[in-house]
Write a structure and sequence with these properties.
The protein has about 230 residues and is an alpha/beta fold. The protein has one domain: Rossmann fold, CATH 3.40.50. The chain is about 40% helix and about 15% strand. It has eight helices and six strands. Strands 1, 2, 3, 4, 5 and 6 form a six-stranded parallel beta sheet that branches. Helix 1 links the parallel strand 1 and strand 2. Helix 1 packs parallel to helix 7. The chain starts with a strand and ends with a helix. The structure holds flavin-adenine dinucleotide (FAD) and zinc ion (ZN). Zinc ion binds next to helix 6. Its cofactor is FAD; Zn(2+). InterPro entries: Flavodoxin_fold, Flavoprotein-like_sf, NAD(P)H_dehydrogenase_qn. It is an enzyme of class 1 (oxidoreductase). It comes from Falcunculus frontatus.
Length: about 230
């Protein structure tokens, strides 16, 4: 109770399975007394491209544009574009970040990747010697909740689903100092029976009920590749 949750949601259709997972999370967490904010990226028409437009003031070096350097400088001088500042504020206030999305090419949809690229600016999320356990977004938790097209069995044959979580959980969240909870994966909702789909939705509600008692994973290579 009293915890702040930011759900970054990347699906175009509210009636989708992802839409149902989002709805459940908002309802259950609100019921627990958490304050829940949703960044509905498609509805916001969130800009995923990392461009010069992200810097509103003058450029540090207008001769040769360097996105990382320019956003870092702009962050320090308050010159980042308004949409980025708003997302950073939501991240800053949150105790828990939930990412809700369908798996696209073993990764996240471009609009969500763009959110990572643009919001987690140097100086805000990490700094030169401040990364991983020293990252700037400490005392926050993250949870990747996603759906797949492929079945659980196929993922077991093709290789552990944990491999594809390495860039997202370790490369992004851990890098920024954010602790990582077990991912929540709903396999192949499109190919499941109505009954199985309802079961998967109930499982998400159940997990959320005891979420705050969970320990973060040990986000080291062993968790992913052992
Ligand atoms: P939906 O189709 O919206 O939902 C499935 C069914 O659930 C629908 O019939 C819907 O009506 C129903 N439903 C919704 N809410 C409820 C409810 N409350 N109760 C009961 N039923 C409900 N998959 C992979 O495994 N690996 C990949 O690398 C991959 N890459 C992709 C790349 C692209 C570009 C695309 C477009 C897809 C890719 N996929 C991949 C598939 C993708 O991950 C799945 O299509 C997606 O995860 C399915 O989720 P959804 O929310 O869109 O499902
Ligand atoms: Zn890690």
């Amino acid at each position: 109770p009293g915890k702040k949750v930011l759900i970054v949601y990347a699906h175009q259709e509210p009636k989708s399975f992802n839409g149902s997972l989002l709805k459940i999370a908002v309802e259950e967490l609100t019921k627990q007394g958490c304050s829940v904010t949703v960044s509905d990226l498609y509805a916001m028409q969130f800009e995923p491209r990392a461009t010069r437009n992200d810097i509103v003031g003058h450029l540090h070096n207008s001769e040769a544009f360097n996105y990382g350097v320019e956003t870092w400088e702009a962050y320090k001088s308050g010159g980042l574009s308004k949409d980025l500042v708003e997302e950073q504020k939501k991240v800053q206030e949150a105790d828990l970040l939930i990412f809700q999305f369908p798996l696209f090419w073993f990764s996240m949809p471009a609009i969500l990747k763009g959110w990572m690229d643009r919001v987690l600016v140097q100086g805000f999320a990490y700094d030169l010697s401040k990364a991983y356990d020293g990252g700037l977004l400490q005392d926050k938790l993250s949870l990747f909740s996603f759906t797949t097209g492929g079945s659980k069995e196929k993922y077991a044959i093709r290789g552990d689903v944990r491999y594809l979580l390495w860039p997202m959980q370790h490369g992004i969240m851990h890098f920024c100092g954010v602790k990582v909870l077990e991912p929540h994966i709903c396999y192949a909702p499109e190919h499941a029976s109505e009954e199985k789909r309802k079961e998967m939705l109930t499982a998400w509600t159940q997990r959320l009920k005891t979420l705050w008692k969970e320990e973060p994973i040990d986000c080291s290579p062993e968790w992913y590749f052992k």
